[in-house]
Design brief:
Layout (H helix, E strand, L loop, with lengths): L1 H5 L4 E7 L17 H15 L2 E9 L21 H14 L4 E5 L3 H4 L1 H17 L3 E6 L2 H10 L27 E4 L4 H10 L9 H4 L2 H8 L1 E5 L10 E2 L7
Helix pairs in contact: 2-7, 3-5
Amino acid sequence: MRKAADAGHDVHLVTATRGEQGEPQAGVLAEGERLWERRIVEVAEAAKILGCVTNRFLDYEDSGMMGEPANDNPACFWQADVEEASVRLAAMLTEVDADVLTIYDPNGLYGHPDHIQVHRVGLRAAELASVDYVYEATVSREDALAAMEANDVNPGDEDGEGGVDRDTFGVPRAEIRYSINIANEIPAKRAALRAHRSQVSEEDFFLSVPDEVFAAIFGSEFFAITGDGDVGGPTEVDLLPGL
């Protein structure tokens, strides 16, 4: 996002929910302040850091993690009618004449219900708004696990216990179409994470590891395309095709 903005493109952020089901970091919220109120402010700050022109919400409620009671909330994004939600998003895409849309991969990186729904709604909204270029933000499963292991970050055992599920986290490298080197944008990426004070503390992995470790794990971003299958691995591009 920051790289596209710096290249002169208009970047628009649409967020499905306000993160109501999250667990706030201790001492962050003011007395009487609700988590979603703080997260609106945090998203706006992060969007500014990343160079976004607009920052909007689809106005659904957070669904919580998969299997939690919040999944059954009729107002949550997981329960949203895909067509209805897609019409909402398509209207926003049409309003800004979007050329490129980025969404999550089919498993939402790691199985979060709202991330999975972003994938479903995003694909349909792109059809409705005639957006030709749709890319799934993902991670290379092999690269991510290797980088975490090399930097003493616990990715979990072979069954996913104690960390990520090795069988569903991200997608196989062979199925990824594009990679983008964002080494120059690492400071902005980390600053945007730091803006989410209610969600990420300075002691958390994302902010506590040295800059070189953070860059080793998060210095490239990966994008796939639904239905591509085995494409032989990612081609590094400066910006996604369509930009």
